[in-house]
Write a structure and sequence with these properties.
Elements: E1 2-6, H1 8-21, E2 27-34, E3 40-46, E4 53-54, E5 59-60, H2 63-76, E6 82-90, H3 99-109, E7 120-126, E8 129-141, E9 144-156
Parallel strand pairs: 1-3, 1-9, 6-7
Antiparallel strand pairs: 2-3, 2-6, 4-5, 7-8, 8-9
Bound molecules: zinc ion (ZN).
Protein name: Mov34/MPN/PAD-1 family protein
GO biological process, one term: proteolysis
InterPro entries: JAB_dom_prok, MPN
Amino acid sequence: MNKVWLQKAAYTRILEETIRKMPCETGGILMGYWGNTGEAVVTAIIGPGPKAVHKRTSFVPDYEYDKKAISRHYEQSGFTETYLGDWHTHPYAAAYLSEQDKKTLKKIADFEPARLVKPLMMILGTQPFNLGAWAHTYTKRRCMRKPSIVPCSIELY
Ligand SMILES: [Zn+2]
């Protein structure tokens, strides 16, 4: 199973932001790096931007804000911490990948300019309370690239 290390301060920010926007969804960007052992390390979170749209069962990011914040963080980290994927909340629902979430994750994986090998999606559900994460990968079989989504375990550090 893939492992995701989540910085405690970043986790706290997710919790605070979740409560602030209840009963609407919120979300943002996961920043960090992939370690040598194939484990993702989330060092910080970004967002949501001021123009993000928060509704009870949907969240639309402020893409412009996110894009700028990603480059700023990348620079400030000495070009070591980059865009790993997205996070969002499911108020009064479980942490699971909805059909829309699966589509979004696939879109991130297929987004050429970012070239993410293994994009992540982290979801905080408040009922039952749980934080989940999934990684999107492509497995090569003969000449076909087969998309697959695998769950990750999360550990705070
Ligand atoms: Zn969702």
